Amino acid sequence: MDLRIGIQNSPRELGFETSLTAAEVEQAVSAALSGQSPVLRLTDSKGAVYVVPAAALAYVEIGTEESRKIGFVG
Question: One Pfam family from the UniProt entry (predicted)?
Fold first, then answer.
């Protein structure tokens, strides 16, 4: 699944692919925004860890869990 995370006062967003489900990502974001965790911690599909302070989150866009289709329709 593709994720995009906007960070306040930063012109660029974090974009990466993760093996987490949409529900798992939503739960982590909710925990960070509700104050249960001071950071949002997510791991991408290659094992890299991203840690963003909860107070700096601008938005989190959760993509679809479907794989992208390549080719022509016709």
Answer: DUF3107
Q: Hey, what are 17's tokens?
A: 């692919």
Q: How far is CA 18 from CA 7, 9, 27, in A?
A: 18, 24, 14
Residue 29 near residue 14 (C-beta atoms within 8 A): no
Structural domain spans, the chain: 2-63
d(CA 9, CA 30): 21
**Predicted structure pTM score:** 0.81
